[in-house]
């Protein structure tokens, strides 16, 4: 139940009744006063109760979390989620059995889930949220793998004196490559192509 109408002798009493029915706090509610009510004359006649309509406010982070868990269940995975919010950046850390199913080959499934979860969150949000999805610390392990790859391919570019193109990657993985070589004195990096097939080129200076 996300919405109820309630009445009371006062507006506050009506609100409290609605909040109790929804099992939420005032901070989690959107409240519309339908009728301020009217006291009866001498407590006998002409009175009218106050009426309110209260909705449970939509939390985009909760919506995204529920979406993510439901998709995981459809994939046969019962996952636990830790949520970390830093301003408009929201990180979901997944744990449990069968995490490999959610990660997929080279993180492709995890990346797809991250994109869908971000869409679910921003459908309900009045400000753009950036979602990062991680499972069993995969992102850190992937970052280290990409850093090592960047260094190896930079050596190859120098050894062959030819540009080396990497496979298409999502933007945050390309940033890892750029960052790994930003201080390199003998190679440059730049991106080519269009999303989702944008890729990095490492070239000798």
From TrEMBL:
Record InterPro entries: Jag_KH (IPR038008), Jag_N_dom_sf (IPR038247), KH_dom-like_a/b (IPR015946), KhpB (IPR039247), KhpB_N (IPR032782), R3H_dom (IPR001374), R3H_dom_sf (IPR036867), R3H_KhpB (IPR034079)
Species of origin: Rossellomorea aquimaris
Protein name: RNA-binding protein KhpB
Subcellular location as annotated: Cytoplasm
Any one Pfam family match given in the protein's UniProt record, by short name: R3H
A GO cellular component annotation in the UniProt record: cytoplasm
Family: Belongs to the KhpB RNA-binding protein family.
A Gene Ontology molecular function term of the record: RNA binding
Domain of life assignment: Bacteria
One GO term (biological process): regulation of cell shape
Keywords: Cell shape, Cell wall biogenesis/degradation, Chaperone, Cytoplasm, RNA-binding
Domain R3H: 140-205
Region (Jag_N domain): 5-55
Task of the protein: A probable RNA chaperone. Forms a complex with KhpA which binds to cellular RNA and controls its expression. Plays a role in peptidoglycan (PG) homeostasis and cell length regulation.
NCBIfam families to which the protein is assigned, alphabetical: Jag_EloR
Subunit structure: Forms a complex with KhpA.
Free-text domain note: Has an N-terminal Jag-N domain and 2 RNA-binding domains (KH and R3H).
